[in-house]
# Entry
Amino acid sequence: MRNKSVISEARDIRLAIELIQLGARLQMLEAETNLSRERLLKLYKEVKGVSPPKGMLPFSTDWFMTWQPNVHASLFMAYFRFFEKHTKLRGLELIIKSYRMYLEKVTRSGMEIVLSLTRAWTMVRFFEANMLQRATCRECGGEFVAHAYDPTRGYVCGLCHLPARAGKTRRAAA
Amino acid sequence: MKSTDTYNDIKEVNLAYMMLAQNMVRSDREGAIFRLGISEEIADILERLTPGQVLKMAASDMLLCSFRFDDALLLDLLSNHERDRGAGHVHAAILAAGRAVESVA
# Structure
């Protein structure tokens, strides 16, 4: 057993349950808790009633650049930066709180949840690894997610200049 | 409107504001810091106020909450009905999160 202390194991299990309920993938649970893969698998099935999705985590930063994901990712990052600056929340707690705020905002605005917890968590790691950066919109002054090393001077965000086909997905039309 | 009416209205808004703010801080501290636009220090002060202190503060003839969005773009985003409501509010949230919070000097 990797866990020596029962108390720390209980804490990990509670954390894992919270993460699973928020939609975390198994890889994220493995990285953030000290529980074994078998225990996490069992826990996942118990909480969700189904086996966790298989396969690798999305590893490309391109997903964050298309219009709709970029708006959602930028909203999450806005909360993330705010709480980082103005509260004592750090690490995973900071991600969870920002994600909960994001979920609440999106559901209250009657929109679809586009950003999953695992994606949000991956994005924070992309930022830490300097694969993504923040670009300030020339028109509204808001900060948006952008590729690292892309020129950000004269950047205009997708909300100031809505692309003509924005939001008109096949699913929205149906 | 008579000045006594205004005075009473201010008192009522103050009391409602203080009670709401205190409840928000107590139930979801970080969320309240964002939604109220206050610093952690102010959140601490709000949390510790006794009902008596809240009543005394509310009895002032000045409004305790001030206008937060002194920015034409933010105002437009929040009030404009032409825009898609969801996207406008998301845009407003992104901008608001970048703003400074109220803090005690």
Q: What stands out?
A: Chain B has a mean pLDDT of 88.
